Amino acid sequence: MSLHRRTVTALxxxxxxxxxxxxxxAQGQPRPGSATLGIALEPPGLDPTTAPAAxxxxxxxxxVFEGLTRITMxxxxxxxxxxxWSHTPDGKTYSFVLRQGVRFSxxxxxxxxxxxxxxxxAMAPASANRARKSVFDNISSVVxxxxxxxxxxxxxxxxxxxxxxxxxxxxxxxxxxxxxxxDRPVGTGPYRLERWDKGRSHAGALGRPSQPRGSAAEPGxxxxxxxxxxxxxxxxxxxxxxxAALKQLQADKRFGVQIGVTAGKGILAINNRKPxxxxxxxxxxxxxxxxxxxFISGAQEGLGRPIGSHFAPLNVGYVELSGRYPYDPAxxxxxxxxxxxxxxxxxxxxxxxxPYARIGxxxxxxxxxxxxVMAKIEHLDWDQWTAGPYKGDFDLTLFNHVDPLDYAATYxxxxxxxxxxxxxxRGLVAVLDxxxxxxxxxxxxxxxxxxxxxxxxxxxxxxxxxxxxxxxxLRGLWVxxxxxxxxxxxxxxxxx
Length: 496
Prior knowledge:
The chain has 3 domains: 1-64 and 190-254 and 472-496, no CATH class; 66-188, Dipeptide-binding Protein, Domain 1 (Dipeptide-binding Protein, domain 1, Alpha-Beta Complex); 261-465, Dipeptide-binding Protein, domain 3, CATH 3.10.105. The protein is an alpha+beta fold. The chain has helices spanning 17-20, 54-60, 112-123, 161-164, 236-251, 280-289, 292-299, 329-338, 355-369, 382-387, 407-411, 423-433, 438-454; strands at residues 12-13, 69-71, 77-79, 82-87, 93-98, 139-144, 149-154, 195-197, 201-206, 220-225, 255-261, 265-270, 304-306, 345-351, 373-379, 396-401, 459-471, 474-475, 492-493. The protein has 13 helices and 19 strands. The strands form 5 sheets. Strands 1, 11, 12, 13, 14, 15, 16 and 17 form an 8-stranded mixed beta sheet that branches. Strands 4-5-7-6 form a 4-stranded antiparallel beta sheet, covered by helices on one side. The chain has a 3-stranded antiparallel beta sheet with strand order 8-9-10, with no helix packed on it.
């Protein structure tokens, strides 16, 4: 696909190390005024409001489409299409003052009616927006108060609404072209689509931005190749190739390699509804049986951090709880005996397709075997995984939750796939949503994380790292990924 703008001038890759090391990738030479961004998967379309694929946001968010707010690389929330916002003391009414002079890439003006259209489209009964349940079902009404002011009235207070409105699911669409956004997106961002060679590559022509966005350089092209190395798969050999590729890039003076953090929460999910896992002592035994550092070393090549609850280290309010259940096989065996569990306990460990699961699953199984829990590994494709474990039909499964700040949507819903049902937890979330005092928010975030850890809902294992690789001299590349985005608007090339 072709995105047009004026600021990029180098070869860029923000990809997993194994992808970056595939034959031909590092050997490519940048054309004058061009940049290449390598991403792992080709998106199924380009409308992030109607499809859940994270790869869509990686291409279009902040580049083609924009939202009322912008999330920075460090997780802060800043104004974007909204100049500023305020809310009532009860947190149920938000008022956004919109930027003036903004236009869509076809020249049509952006105003409050576009916001109302986009949000009501996401709120509609037939909406396929991935944030419908967590964000848009909570909006009671969208009120236009003049061309540059929008008021959102909520059913319930939402403490993280400004953050949510900076995600790809909340971008503002052109009302006249929204139906075609999956193939021909028209947004307010600094890039516009010119072509998309489906199944082969995405390229973006960088041309005249739809409105001024800082300094500009000469025009160029931004090719976005699809599936840069997905063939690495989950085999042990794939792991070795990834490790070798990372070492090769780190030693190559043409490139800079930076390792950051993501919003991911990798967990060994436990079916809380199913005996014997409905016993807290059994879940705590599993938590003590898993050696998080060994998992990160073996399945993630050491790239990641141990976690102890369903929060990522870059999340606001993060509390370090990774030591809550230290690796202690003896303690795990004692808890199983206390719970009346006879070993060996035979269970099924269902694994989705990603390499973290296919490589990490045997590591987890071996660790569980040390405490008498014998895990039979079951390999599933995504359709099988979503029809089975994600519907609650499983014993254990290994899964990386990538959505940021998803503790409420994941754990306050009794119908979640692992069956956690806690009235106290739901109460904490409700109080947090109604709270505007920063000190009280911090206390509630601590309580939320601590309860998830105390209840050992799942075995919280790791926060995946992000590996960003770029030609030396390229500035503005995201090192951390608090959301799925590659914000290219700030890229610049350092003077030699």
